[in-house]
Amino acid sequence: MAKAADFNGDANETDVIPPEKCRGKGRPSILSEKAYLWLLTINNPQDHGISLDQQDILERLKDDIAAGKIVYIIARMEQSLTADENGKHTPHGHIAIRFAAQTRGGTVHKKFPMAALQNCNADTFSVRQYILKDPTGKWYKTHPEKIGERLPDSEANCWEWGQIPGSRKSKDNQSSKTLSEDIMRAIREGKNDADILILYPTIWNRSAELRKIRFSIMSQKYRSVYRDLNCIYIEANLPPKETYKLFAHTPDTYVVSDYTHPWDSYCAESTVVLTDYTGQFPWFDIRRFLSGNYCTLPARFSDAVACYTTIIIISPLSIEELCASGKDYDSAALASYITHFRCYLDIDDVGTDYIANPTSGEWEQLYLLPPHVDVDSEKENNDDESEQE
Questions:
Q1: What pLDDT does residue 209 have?
Q2: What is the rounded CA–CA span in Å between residue 44 and residue 52?
Q3: How far apart are the first and last CA of the chain?
């Protein structure tokens, strides 16, 4: 018997057969089709009085299970890629049922009249990969965007019953399934590509695929999020070997020093540093990078999604000099994005910090950024300690 093909992700997930079309000449042909494996999609299950809890589904199928007609079931909740006018995503659930013998679609429809049906002429394990949104499955090659439908494990209510006939029990396939879940979890936890490759060295040759998965997850996460950015402009004409001292205190930092392909390695770091910046980005792009709105960062293998909440611009030029250098920059608009400003006069200067007054728009001197402290406040604290002694 020939092996069934792997499932490519093409599925009917919306068209539900209404009761009036279940009889007569207009009866849809899918009700007469036979298949070992059926994929069901239930949109807004709460509106149909059904949940995807294991107890509920097994209760509906208890007679078939008792008769040995069903050998495997998997179910998982997801959400739609698109949102309505209120920003809410449509909840939907997938159920895959593997029968011991070919079963008509009409039989399945009687059990789940609210479900969209798909005759899966495909390998059961590959359908399982689709429901789990396992990116190692064939479905990911044709529909990578669907990975954004995946809910966190704590919300997905995923469960399995029975055993896949002729299931791939080899250690390699089991580890592949476990590995994919671990990688997805690592991305959601904010680990960068280097950390993931160290933890899972067997995926060393799949870095491009890893970045595509990260983009899908982060795009879904940050699409409707406004990031209240700290935009720090540091005017410092220092030797290159001294520049790192200006941001050595910042954790989880991505440093841009080569502007040819600046975002190729960005992995959701919380701080971005632009070194020796003299206007390498067009004005249109720098506005996007500083706005805090949803922003994609163009890269060669896969674009990245801006997740940073702090961006530090280190430049040998003042803001006025940068905007006057023929880059079509608007000095007033650029200054409105900057929340903190620091100026170094020479290599021995400790630096002077300024913060924008939101009311007057003026720059007010303040020792704010590490490693500096407010000298006057420190002196007052010392005086208080002396008086107590």
A1: 77
A2: 11
A3: 91
